[in-house]
Design brief:
Number of strands: 15
Strand order of the largest sheet: 1-15-11-12
Oligomer: single chain
Structural class: alpha+beta
Radius of gyration: 24 Å
Distance between the termini: 58 Å
Helix content: 25-40%
Length: about 450
């Protein structure tokens, strides 16, 4: 049952009273709404509330990898660069004109847009939030394959041989040292490759253990960069809605550090701290909590785990033990694979949906009563960003109170569930079996030992 005790108009009025601007003179209505919406999204990102929902999704014939980023999905990505430009402009005390710059010469749209795009792509690499299934012809009698220049990271390589009697299989990952340990002349002997490596090559290529001896196709999972921003045209940012604020603060950090006339080192440092905090959280971005197939709870392994347990899970259909295989954030497949003509398999997944964001003044705020003050604290703090100096610094305790509330809610939910930490990590099991980055503590221990 949805909350209906307070509306956007009522909550905004309280925010404006706190800002001593009840007439919305210095903080216009549209700007105040943005800060409240950001507060709700950050709260949902950090506590998974109130956006956790059960979502029915059907796998159909011929369906392998599917994205949950589509119209009607609770995880559809809708935040655009224009949305973020408008908020950044307001925070820099410039007119909120989206992708058309109408402000002072301190900043310009090219500076803001470039910073936003670079930070967005860095976050896509860190979080694996834009993993796609890429099919590309494999070379014949050559070890090396070249990838599109939008490639950020390569996660998985599977070989589909042209000979349909041969079963496709996933290759293991290694490096040039481990490959040579198994035979330094492998590169001279065409055959069936069993591994792939990128450590000896440029980022846009990978080598297989030996040249394929017949035509085939590489079936890959690849992290891609997002769409290029071309203001004034609005472009979907490509990050989950509740995490778009992270690249906003990263971009603001760059803008305030590099603008010749609008430099502000203190606020740039603050924005960089917010960006680093969000980026670290995004590496463990919770999004999938559990899944059911045919009203029966099923496992949600990562692709590496599933490849190890059942090599032909994408090729054959088995009657028992279905699973939902995770390829990346919002990218899933059904194992065993659906092959029957006209077949449909119904599933229900518990996901962290986008925070319900109010738009009209009469829209109820979907927030429990204990969280209203926390979101107002957050919105008041962000609304004070444009004051700069000591006036903005004086609102930092409000942000600290918001963070304390988020920790309190997580402690509450952890106490209510026995395995909540494991549950919220379900969508990230690939990182346990196939880490994308070296463990930070491991690096520190190694440096200390040397």
């Amino acid at each position: 049952m949805p909350y209906d005790y307070i509306t956007l108009g009522e909550m905004r009025a309280e925010l404006l009273n706190r800002l001593q601007d009840s007439g919305a003179v210095f903080t216009p209505v549209a700007e105040a709404n943005l800060y409240l919406q950001e507060g709700l999204r950050v709260l949902n990102a950090l506590t998974l509330q109130p956006g956790t929902v059960d979502f029915a999704f059907d796998f159909v014939e011929g369906s392998t990898w599917n994205t949950l980023n589509f119209p009607g999905s609770p995880r559809q990505r809708t935040v655009t660069d224009t949305d973020l430009y408008s908020q950044m402009e307001a925070m820099l005390m410039e007119p909120m004109s989206g992708g058309v710059w109408t402000g002072t010469v301190q900043y310009n749209i090219a500076l803001i847009s470039g910073a936003l795009q670079y930070r967005r792509d860095e976050l896509l690499l860190e979080s694996a939030a834009n993993v796609v299934n890429l099919l590309q012809p494999s070379p014949l009698l050559s070890m090396r394959t070249y990838l599109p220049d939008s490639t950020l990271n390569l996660h998985r390589v599977r070989w589909i041989q042209a000979d349909s009697t041969q079963m496709p299989y996933a290759l293991s990952r290694e490096d040039i040292i481990s490959r040579n340990a198994n035979g330094v002349n492998l590169s001279l002997k065409p055959g069936e490759p069993d591994s792939w490596m990128i450590t000896a090559n440029s980022p846009l290529t990978f080598d297989c253990s030996q040249p394929p001896n017949q035509p085939g196709t590489w079936d890959m999972l690849v992290s891609f960069a997002g769409a290029s921003f071309q203001p004034p045209q609005a472009t979907v940012v490509g990050l989950p809605n509740d995490w778009a604020w992270v690249c906003l603060y990263g971009a603001l950090a760059d803008v305030l550090a590099n603008s010749p006339e609008g430099r502000d080192s203190e606020r740039s440092k603050y924005c960089l701290q917010r960006y680093d905090q969000g980026k670290k959280a995004m590496t463990k971005l919770p999004w999938l909590l559990q899944a059911q197939v045919g009203q029966v709870s099923v496992d949600t392994p990562g692709f590496k785990e599933q490849d190890t347990q059942l090599q032909d899970w994408e090729q054959r259909q088995y009657p028992d033990d279905p699973v939902i295989v995770v390829g990346g954030v919002d990218l899933i497949a059904l194992g065993p694979f659906v092959v029957d003509s006209g077949a449909t398999v119904g599933t229900v997944m518990t996901v962290v949906g986008n925070a319900p964001v109010p738009v009209a003044d009469s829209d109820p705020i979907q927030l429990s009563r204990d969280g209203v003050d926390a979101v107002l604290n957050y919105a008041q703090h962000v609304a004070s960003f444009k004051l700069a100096g000591s006036d903005f610094a004086a609102t930092l305790p409000l942000f600290e109170q918001f963070e304390a509330y988020c920790r309190l809610k997580n402690e509450q939910y952890n106490a209510l569930g026995i395995f909540r930490p494991q549950m919220i990590a379900e969508g990230n099991r690939n990182d346990f079996d196939d880490p994308r980055f070296e463990d930070e503590n491991k690096v520190k221990r190694g440096a200390k030992a040397r």
